[in-house]
Amino acid sequence: MSTETPKGERIAKFLSRAGIASRREAERMIAAGRVAVNGKTIESPALNVTPADKVAVDGKAVGAPEPARLWLYHKPIGLVTTAKDEKGRETVFDKLPEDMPRVMSVGRLDINSEGLLLLTNDGGIKRKLELPSTGWLRKYRVRVKGAPKDADLAPLRDGIVINRERFQPMIVSIDRQQGANAWLTVGIREGRNREIRRAMEAVGLTVNRLIRVSYGPFQLGDLKPGAVDEVRAKVLRDQLGLDGGGSDKSGSPRKKPQRGRKSRGQT
Prior knowledge:
The chain has helices spanning 11-17, 23-31, 123-130, 154-158, 195-202, 233-240; strands spanning 9-10, 35-37, 40-41, 48-49, 55-57, 60-62, 70-75, 104-106, 114-120, 138-145, 161-162, 165-166, 171-178, 181-188, 206-215, 218-219, 227-230, 258-259. A hairpin with a 2-residue loop joins strand 5 and strand 6 (60-62). The chain has 6 helices and 18 strands. The protein has 3 domains: 9-62, Roll (Structural Genomics Hypothetical 15.5 Kd Protein In mrcA-pckA Intergenic Region, Chain A), CATH 3.10.290; 70-133 and 227-242, Alpha-Beta Plaits, CATH 3.30.70.580; 137-215, Alpha-Beta Plaits (2-Layer Sandwich). The chain is of the alpha+beta class. Helix 1 crosses helix 2. The chain is 17% helix and 29% strand. The strands form 4 sheets. Strands 7, 8, 9, 10, 13, 14, 15, 16, 17 and 18 form a 10-stranded mixed beta sheet that branches. Strands 3-2-5-6 form a 4-stranded antiparallel beta sheet, with no helix packed on it. The chain has a two-stranded antiparallel ribbon with strand order 1-4.
């Protein structure tokens, strides 16, 4: 029995790095009979492919994965973070510049949230940045209704339990009171569904604005709503520990921020 390691990489990983889908979604595509290798439909993700293999999804050829890239996107309110919305709502991908390659979001921001959303063409980067073990702090500016005192936020710092679900301790500070609302800064290391909104509700506060301002070392800065800014290849390598094969070695400067294209009826 041969003990040699198969050449190439798993087909789901290949599709993920090519920006087609996450590994899990790629496995579902394979199970649905949508993926072919060298002209034959495959039924299992337990297959390695090499650059010599011809891979197709839904009959369309899939090229070799491009160098890993990462973009900062200032998501406006009113867009959903999904490739296709079952309710027909506009998505962040509908608003990206036309010259953007196919990308995936790192995590999500709900329709009523705004701020920094990371986009990548590489499924491996997406998975790495979404894992809780990465431990990157995500900071938000949060406006809540009312005039909370520091003691009101103590349960969030201790790690609140909501419906038997324990949240990791949050970093919470009160920035200022503005009329009937207060501005807070909140830092979290997880990314559960509506985590901050749910936590605030649990201590009697209603969130009426939520802006993500950073994700690990990546900052929203003065990026305008709807604009996209590519991270330098060297910065990407340094921050994620990528080797030379995982991204461009040029270290060329970031491109100027790009405005999202306007759709009909947008102002």
